[in-house]
Amino acid sequence: MWLIPTDVPPDGVAELAAVLDEQERRRADALAVRQRRMRYIAAHAAARVLIGRYLDARPGSVQFTRGPHGKPEVAGLRVNLSHSGDLAALAVTTRRAVGVDVQRLLPHLDAPRMAARYFPAAEARYVAAADPVARFAELWARKEACVKAAGGRLVPGLAVTVHPGPCVARQDGRSYRWQDLAAPAGFRAAVALEGSEGFSISPRWFKIGSR
User: Fold this and answer.
1) What pTM was estimated for this model as a whole?
2) Residue 202 has pLDDT above 70, yes or no
3) What is the mean pLDDT of residues 40-67?
4) What pLDDT, in 10s, does the model give residues 177-197?
């Protein structure tokens, strides 16, 4: 499990963009806000560097295939990438389908209203009871991690129950075990693997430009 700061000097962005594939470049170019575009490039370039290390391959040569809903996969590994604000998270495993999500806390978000709209009633009450912005981000990260492990669509997956109870959610007839990740202040994060079996996480930090 890799955590990646994505604020990089502007003069390094062109070099990072050079390792992206055509689809990644198109998505970066579509981001109108310059800071968001730079963070996107940094997150995806870092993911390519790290995946390349596992595969003993150059970052630019890493080949992704994409599932029906766009989830990237790499031959020989199960990977998933998430980024929010100036933080990205990359999950890498070899056997079980994996999903990861990181959420930056948004102080001005009407979290109780959003939870009432998208979450089961018991979870909406949990969000509204105390510290709603943090609780909303906590549950959203768990749900999105499960959705990404399944390779499904987000909105239907928000109905998956991730509080209270054991750390196993069911989606499309399959089970997914999720686990919260230790994230910096101002963020919440979670990772999920297909199946109900437990798993351990090896968290590490990666600084772009490091060897």
Assistant:
1) 0.94
2) yes
3) 94
4) 999 999 999 999 999 999 999
Amino acid at 150: A
Which residues partner with 175 through β-bridges? 170
In terms of Cβ atoms closer than 10 Å to its own Cβ (0-12, 13-18, 19+), residue 9 is: exposed
Tokens of 48: 């390519």
3-state secondary structure (DSSP) of residue 126 = helix
Pick the CATH number of 2-205 from 3.90.470.20, 2.30.30.100, 2.40.160.40, 3.40.720.10: 3.90.470.20
Distance CA 31, CA 35 (A): 9
| Residue 211 burial (10 A CB sphere; 0-12, 13-18, 19+) | exposed
In whole angstroms, what is the distance from residue 166 CA to residue 128 CA?
A: 21
CA distance 206 to 34: 23
Task: Give the max Cα distance, the chain.
Answer: 49
Give the separation between CA 44 and CA 58, rounded to whole angstroms.
Answer: 14
Please, what is the Cα angle at 130 between 127 and 135, to 5 degrees? Answer: 40
